[in-house]
Amino acid sequence: MTSTNEAGSFWMPPQASTVAQEVDSLFDFIMDLNYIFFFLILAMVVVFVVRYRRTQQNQLATSDLAHNTFLEASWTFGPLALCLVMFVWGFKLFTTLAVAPEGAMVVNVEAQKWRWSFQYEDGQTSDELYVPAGIPVKLVMRSKDVLHSFFVPDFRVKADVIPNRYTTLWFEAIKPGVHTIYCTEYCGKDHSQMYNKVHVLSEDEFKKKKEVGFDAEIDPVTGKPKAKDPVVYGKELYEKKGCKACHSLEAGEKLVGPSFHGLFGRTGKTVAGETYTANEEYIRESVMTPLAKVVEGFPPSMPAFQGQINDEQMNALIAFIKTLK
Amino acid sequence: MSDFLLHKHEHEHFFYNNQQEASSAKLGVWLFLVTEILLFSGLFVAYTVVKMQFPEMWKVASAVLDWKMGSLNTVVLITSSWTVALAVRAAQTNQRGEKNKQIVGLLAFTVVCAFIFLVVKYFEYSHKIHEGLLWGAKYTFPAKVAELKEQISAAFGASIWDQKNVLESMASLAKSDTQMHLLKEWTEFGKPELQALLNVEKPHLFFGIYFLITGLHGIHVVIGMSLLIWILIYSRKGYFYKDYYTPVELGGLYWHLVDLIWIYLFPLLYLV
Amino acid sequence: MSDTQAKDYHLHLTDEPDYIDAKPGIGAWLSTVDHKRLGIMYLFAVFATFGLGGLMALLVRLELFSPGATIMGPDTYNRVFTLHGLAMVFLFIIPGIPAALGNFVLPLMVGAKDVAFPRLNRASFHVYLVGTAMALYTLVSGGVDTGWTFYTPYSSQSDTPVVMMTLSAFVLGFSSIFTGLNFIVTIHKMRAPGLTWDRLPLFIWALYATSIIQVMATPVLGITLLLLAMEKVMGVGIFDPALGGDPVLFQHFFWFYSHPAVYIMILPGMGVMSELVTTFSRKKIFGYRAVAFSSLAIAIISFLVWGHHMFVSGQSAYAGMVFSFLTFLVAIPSAIKVFNWATTLYKGSIILNTPMLWALSFLILFTIGGLTGLFLGTLGVDVHLHDTYFVVAHFHYVMMGGTAMAFFGGVHYWWPKMFGRMYNEKLAQLSAILVFIGFNVTFLPQFVMGSRGMPRRYYDYTPESGYEIFHKISTVGSWILLAGMLIMLFYLLQSLRQPKNQRLELANPWEARSLEWLTVSPPIEHNFHEIPTVVEGPYEFPINGQKSEH
Fold first, then answer.
1. CB–CB of C190 and B24 under 8 A?
2. Whose CA, among A176, C63, C198, C296, lies 20 to 30 Å from C484?
3. pLDDT tens, C112-148?
4. Which domain holds residue C18?
C-alpha cells in the first residue's frame, strides 16, 4: 500500500541518504499495519453500532457472549508476532544507523546556543556542513552548553548532542543537494532558529571547496574566491556566528550583551573597574577572550571565539561595527 | 473496676468493626512505607552512579567519615527499634491499663535514643562544616587548608614545613595562644585522610550525596520522633490496650523503617 | 443484584438529605471528609486547570498559525508551551479521573460508606490546592521555560522559577500518593459482602492498577525533583556536567516516573470505557478476566519501558534494544482491551447517547494513538520521528483522544448520580461531535508534519519548509475544539442551575448494574442505609428472551 520512493511520499521527505530507503521500508510496513488494524476496528465499531442499534425490536442484547478462545488467542498472539517482527527489524536497522562504516570521513560538530559549527579533518572550520556524495560521513558531536540534537530529516538521522561527552551519527548522502539541519532538543529562546544546511557536493566539487576554504565564496566567472566586501561580510558574520542572539543593532537595546550601535570608539568601565575604549584591539580581545574585559552591568556569558574566527573575518566584523553609528 | 486509665476505642462509622479498621490501617501504612523506600532508592541510585564514575575519589572521600560515630549511631538506632518493639508488645498485652506506664517508659527510651542519634549527627555535621567539607560551591576545604597553612607559616616560620614531623615540631614550639590554636587546627586539618582529598577530583560530589542522604534520613528521624512523642502522650492517657494498639504498632513500624534505612546507609557511606 | 431486591432498600426514600444539602456552607465543604464532596470539588478544580492548559494550547496554536512572530515572542512562547504541558499533566490529567470521578464513584461502587481514610482523602485535596497555588505562583514570578520535562542542564542553569515549579510538582505528588494509597486499601478491605474480586466492576480494577503505579512511581518523581531543586539551590552536581554530573542521568530518573505516569493517566480512562461500553450496549463485557488482568499487566510492565523516551539520547544500543522489546510487550494488553471493547458491542442493544459518543470517540482515537506508538517503539524508525510533531500527535491521541474523552464520557455518565440533574442531551451530543471533529483536524496533520521532519517545541518555522499548511489546519482544528468545549461548559453549568430532579427519577437513568446505581441521586451522605449484598457480576444485563424490569 504505502510505498515511499526517492522523492518521498505523503508521509516522508525525499530520501537523500543510503539508509533513508531502509527506514522508509520499515515505516511503510508499520503504516500498512496501522491502516489494516485501524480500519478493522473502525469497521467493527461501525457495523456493530448500525446493526445492533437500539430499536423497538432490539431493546436488549441478544447474546451474553463473554469468551471465545480462538478470537482471544488470535488477537493476542497475532499482534505479538507482528510486534516481534517490528522489533527485530527495527533493532537491525538501528544497528545500521548506529555503527559507522570503517574509514568514514569524520567531521567534528559543536553545538551551542544557538548555532552549529563544523570542523573538518584538516582543521578547517565552517558554519554550514559540507560533505561529499557517495562517501560515508561520521559526525562526532559535542555541546558547549545545554542539550541539543542534530537532525536531518532527508537523511533520517538524529542524535542528541550533550555537553559532557561525544555522541556520533553517520550517513552517506546519495547525490548532490542541500538539506536542512534542525536542532531537535529544546535549548531555549532560539531553539527554532538553529537552522543549518548540509551541502552535499560531488566528490570533485567537495575537493575544490576544501582547497578554497569552505566558507569562501567562489566567483563564478574567475573560479577564484570572491573578494568580499568587508562590511557586507561582517554583517553576514554578525548573523552566522551568532552575535545577533545577544547584541542588538538598535541604539541602547540591551539583549544579553551591549548593543553594537555606536560601539566603536565608545568608552566606559569594566566590571573590574577599569576604563576601556572600544577600539580595534578591544573588539578583537572581546571576541577572542571575552571574559577579559566585561563591560560593567553585563553578565560574563559570552563564549570565546578563539580558533573560530580568522583574521579576515575579524577585520570584516570590525569594519561592520564601525559603520553602526 | 480497675484504677488504671483506659480509654475504650470506637471504630469509625464506615468500618464494620475494629478488626477491619485495624487491618486497613496496617495495609495503608505498609503502602506508605513502600513509597518511602522508593523515595530513598532514588538517592541510592544517585550514589551508585556517582561512585561508579569516580571510584578513586569515592574511596578517599568516604575514608573521611568517622566510622566510630557512625557505629555508635547504628547501635543507638538498633536499640531504639528493640525498645519500640517491646512497647508494641506491651500495648498488645495491656488488659486493663496496667501496662500504661511500661508503654510510656519504653516509648520514652526510644525517643531518647532518637535524640542521641541527632546529637551525634550534630557533632558530625559541625565537624564537616568547620572543615569546609560541604556540597558544590560550598566545598571550601582546599581554600581553608591554604589559609591555615599561611597562618601557620606566619606564626611558626615557613621552615616548619621542612620538618620531618610537622605536628611534633609545632607541638614543641607552640607557646602563645595563637600557636596553640593553630596546633589544634592542624591536628584536625593535617590528618592524612583529609589531606588526601586535595589530590582527587570533584570530592564535593561525595559530600553532596552524603548530606542529601543523611539529611533526608535525619528529617525522617525527626518525623518519627514526633510521631512517637504523640503516641506517648496518648498512651499516658490509657488509649492503647489489647483491643486497640494500632497507632503504637504502626508508629513502631515507621520507626523500624527509619532504622532500616540507616542500616543500609551506614555501611554504604561509612564502611565501603 | 436483582431489581426487586434493589427496590427494597436503597431507593427507599427517607427524609435524610442528600450529600449536597447535608451540612451546608462553604466551611463545611472545605473541611469535609465526605468522598463525594471531595470528588465534586476536584471535578471543578480539574475543569479549571483543563481550561488553563487549554488556553495555553490555543495560544500556542495561534502563534504557530503563520511563520514569524504572530502574537508573541520566543521567550513568551517557551513559557506558554511549558505551562501547557505542566498544567495538563500535573494539574489535570494525573488527578483527573481518579480524583474527580474515582473519589465520588469508588466507595459507592464497592458498597462502602466512604474510603478507608477519609481524612487522608481530605488531605489529598488540600495538598492538591497547595501544589496548584505554588504552580500558579510561578506564572506571576516570571514563568518557567524549560518544557514540562525539565531536562538538565538547561533547567539547572535556567534563571526562571524552576525550583518553585519542581517543588510544586513534589507537593502535588503527595496528593497523588494519598489518593492511590486510599484506593488500594478501600478496594482490599471495604468491599460489600459478596463482592468478590471477580465481581468487581472493571472501573475498580482500573483504579486499582492505577493506584499501584501512583504509590510506587510517584516517590521516584519526588526524589528526582528534589534532586533537581537541590542541584539548583545547593549546586550538588549530579546532573550538571559543569560540576561533573551527567545530564542523561536526569532523563533516566525523570522517565522512570513519567512513563508509568502516562499509564496513571490512561488506565482510569480504560476503566471508564468498560463501564460505558457495557451500559450503553446493555451487554456484559467480552473477556472480563482479560480486561482486568491486562490492567495489572500494563501497570507492571509500565515500569520497565522508560528508556524508549531516550533512544537517541546517547544511551547504549543494548539498553535501547531491551527497552524497545519491552515497549512492544506493553502494547499487547492495550490491544486486547480494544478488541474486547469492540467485541462487546456484538449483538448488544446500542444507543448513541452522549456518554456512548464519548466512548466510541475513545475507541477510535485511542486505537490511532496506540497504533502510532508502534512507530515510536521501533528503534530504527524512532530515530527519525523522535522529538518531532509525530510524537506530539501520538501522545495527544492517547492522552486527549483517550483519557480526556473517557473523562468527559464519565462526567456525563455519572452526572445525574452526582447532581441529581440531567444536562441538555442535544447540546451534549453536538459538543461531543464537535470535539471529535476538532480533535482530528487539530492532530492528524501533526502526524504528517512530524514524519516530514517538523521538530517539536518550535516557536517558528520557515515558509520554505512546507509545514505552514499543516499548522494552519491544525490551528483551525483547535478553534473547533474550543467551540465544542464552550458548548459543554454552557450546558453543564446550565444544568446545575436547574432544580434537582425527584430523587428516584435519576437514580438509575441508564439502567446500569453496578452498585452506585442502586442509590438515590444524589446519594445521601453515608451512601447506603444498609450495605447491599452482592450476588452476581456487574454486567449481568438481561438478554432477549428474559423479562426485563426497569
1. yes
2. C63
3. 999 999 999 999 999 999 999 999 999 899 899 999 9
4. 3-518
A158 vs C352, C386, C459: nearest CB: C386
Count of other CB atoms within 10 angstroms of residue B226: 12
Q: Answer whether C114 touches B (CB < 8 Å).
A: yes
> From the list C116, C220, C246, which residue is nearest B42 (CB)?
C220
Give the ipTM of the model, two decimals please.
0.92
What residues 201-260 of chain B have any CB closer than 8 A to a CB of chain C? Answer: 201-202, 204-205, 208-209, 212, 216
Q: How many domains does chain C have?
A: 1
Which of B92-96, B116-120, C104-108 shows the lowest per-residue confidence on average (mean pLDDT)? B92-96
If asked whether residues A115 and A205 sit together in one domain, one would say yes
| Number of domain units in chain A | 3
The confidence score (pLDDT) of residue A186 equals: 95
Q: Give a three-class secondary structure readout of C286-302.
A: CCHHHHHHHHHHHHHHH
What does DSSP assign to residue C161? S
Within-domain flag for C540 = no
Contact (CB<8Å) C453/A180:
yes
Domain that holds residue A126: 105-212
Set of cell numbers at residue A115: 548555532
Sign of the four-CA dihedral A266, A270, A275, A277: negative
Q: Tell me: do A208 and A236 sit in the same domain.
A: no
Q: What is the CATH number of the domain that holds A151?
A: 2.60.40.420
Structural domains of chain B, with CATH? 18-139+203-271 (1.20.120.80), 140-200 (no CATH)
CATH number of the domain that C78 lies in? Answer: 1.20.210.10
Same domain, yes or no, for A241 and A206?
no
- ω into residue C260 within 30 of 0, thus cis? no
Cell of A73: 488467542
Residues in CB range of A120: below 8 A, 6 or more apart: A107, A108, A126, A210, A214
CB contact under 8 A, A13 and C452: yes
Cell of C120: 487522608
Read off the pLDDT band of C545 (50, 70, 90): low
Q: Is C187 on the interface with B (CB under 8 A)?
A: no
Torsion over CA: C187, C190, C196, C200 (sign): negative
Is A272 contained in some domain? yes
**Residue B98 in grid coordinates:** 496496667
Answer for the pair A198, A109: CB distance below 8 angstroms, yes or no: no
Dig out the grid coordinates for C517 from the structure.
Answer: 446505581
Residue C546 belongs to some domain of the structure = no
Cα separation of A228 and C243, whole Å?
43
Domain membership of residue C17 (yes or no) is yes
The reply to whether A4 falls in a domain is no
- Which residues on neighbouring strands pair with residue A181, listed in sequence order? A196
Going by the DSSP 8-state scheme, the letter that residue C306 receives in this structure is G
Query: What is the distance between the alpha carbons of residues B42 and B79, in angstroms, rounded to a whole number?
Result: 28
Q: Is C182 on the interface with B (CB under 8 A)?
A: yes
Give dist(CA C219, CA B36) in Å, integer: 7
